[in-house]
Amino acid sequence: LGLAWLGLAWLGLAWLGLAWLGLAWLGLAWLGLAWLGLAWLGLAWLAVMSTAWAATRLLGPATGFAAGAILATSVLVIAEAHLAKADALLLGASAAVMGGLLQAYSTKKMSAAGTIIFWASLGAGVLIKGPILLGVVALAVITLGAADKSLAWLAQLNPKPGVWIALGIVAIWPLTAGLDEVLRYARAAASQDLWPKVINGVESHGAPPGTHLAATVLTLWPWVWALPVSALSAWQKRTDRSVRFCIAWIVPFWLVLELVPTKLPHYVLPLFPAIAVLIAIALTSKRNWQVTRFVGVGIGGLILLSSIMAALTIVLADKLPSWRELNLSKSLAAAIHRHDSDADNVILIGYHEPSAVFLLGTDATLTNPQNAAALMTSSPNAIAAVDRRDVAELEMYLARSGQKIVSLENISGYNYSRGEPLTLVVVKAIPSPDP
Question: How far apart are CA 424 and CA 97, in angstroms?
Fold first, then answer.
């Protein structure tokens, strides 16, 4: 019954997303922004409910409630749910997939509903973020196989019909966008995004191993204090199948993320449900005599960390970005409408955040300086927002077509997805005077 309910929740949230697309097609996207936000927030809650359901089913209601509460109140989960990015979708898919996998690993009989949700969620995860969720699943299965010297439990997932369910969901993309477009995008993503992140730090986010662990002081707040007791508890109970599964879920993929040069805080998000379960097991275990001691130390540490963070906030207040600076897309949309609300083509160069597309409309063109120059030349009423670092390149390409830019306004803010300050220049193109 619980898995059937989760399946209906997935379906309902998908319809919320489709409703927004329909409103966008009718030119009423602004009416659907709240709907879309609810869909993303709902998917984060789906991850919470999936985690709580799996933990309750295998470990009891107290542990299940605690696991859901820990996940729901973690800073990273709250932030990603409200940013309405694909990472919240991946979190929901990850919790559903790994919850189903945990059921197959820890019980003797997998329910039909659990099998369907496992494969459907796996297909949705691939559709959302490519191979990321596949990597989490594969590393967990390989680790469990090496530890148990058996993978017989995988047969409970009914892979023959299940694979077709996953493929059917993934096929939505090529069926709607066209196979050629999908292949082109996949090649570009692999060569320009995934591979550069694997071999060296990109987007100013290169960092040494251990960065993700250090970042848990913020990302896992306010439960970071419980990490020591949960790690000790997990090691003591490593023969328990549920605990062993969570360890296999977390450790291998976390090590991969620490070794990959490029690091962003949300990379570890698919592992947070397992971390929440291990913390919940440690804090609700009656046999773990260390809990009382660690809770006391943890609360003291929490107070100390809060004091340090409060002091740092006061000291660095003039250096931290303001709320207005974080709302860069909103400031950009206001500036464009202020200068030309009737622009027939809005072009974004060097700033391709989804929030900007939501506010400016799906007709906004995301491109590079060379293509932008061609668009601005052929569409005299076009208006563009260009990263200040790309202005010179845009001017060069426009000059070849006898055009020059007119700067209308500079907008300074903070691009939180890249973790860097950014200045956008709102420009138009006009013919250059004859020499």
Answer: 40
Minimum mean pLDDT range among 1-15, 79-93, 108-122: 1-15
Beta strand 383-387 with 346-349: parallel, antiparallel or unpaired? parallel
Three-state secondary structure call for residue 68 = helix
* Residues in Cβ contact with 358 at an 8 Å cutoff, skipping those fewer than 6 apart: 29, 33, 36, 329
Judge whether 261 and 199 are in contact, CB under 8 Å. yes
CA distance 435 to 433: 6
- In the DSSP assignment, the letter for residue 364 is P
Residues 190, 78: Cα–Cα separation, whole Å: 29
Name the 3-class secondary structure at 205. coil
CA torsion, points 131, 132, 138, 144, in degrees to nearest 10? 180
Can you say how many angstroms the Cα of residue 362 is from the centroid of all Cα atoms in its chain?
Answer: 21
Question: CA–CA separation, 4 vs 113, rounded Å?
Answer: 6
CA 420/CA 12 separation, integer angstroms: 36
- 3-state SS, residue 387: strand
CB of 414 closer than 8 Å to CB of 424: no
- Pick 87 or 12 by higher pLDDT: 87
For the record, the structure tokens of 9 come out as 């929740």
pLDDT in tens, 331-370: 888 888 888 755 567 888 888 777 777 777 767 888 888 8
Assigned token pair, 262 = 């490029």
Whether residue 385 contacts residue 331, with contact meaning beta carbons closer than 8 Å, is answered with no
Burial of residue 282 (number of CB atoms within 10 Å: 0-12, 13-18, 19+): buried
Using DSSP, state whether 408 is helix, strand or coil.
strand
Which is nearest to 91 in space by CA: 223, 353, 272, 276?
272
Nearest to 290 by CA among 228, 217, 239: 228
Tens digit of pLDDT for each residue in 181-238? 667 766 666 655 555 555 554 444 556 788 888 888 888 888 888 888 888 888 888 8
DSSP-derived secondary structure letter, 424: E
Place of tokens 């596949």: 134
Cα separation, 337 vs 343, in Å, equals 8
How much is the CA Rg of the chain, to the nearest whole Å?
A: 24
Spatial contact of 269 and 76, defined as CB atoms under 8 Å apart: yes
Determine how many CB atoms are found less than 10 A away from the CB of residue 6.
23
Contact, 257 vs 301, CB < 8 A?
no
Which residue is listed with tokens 């251990």? 210
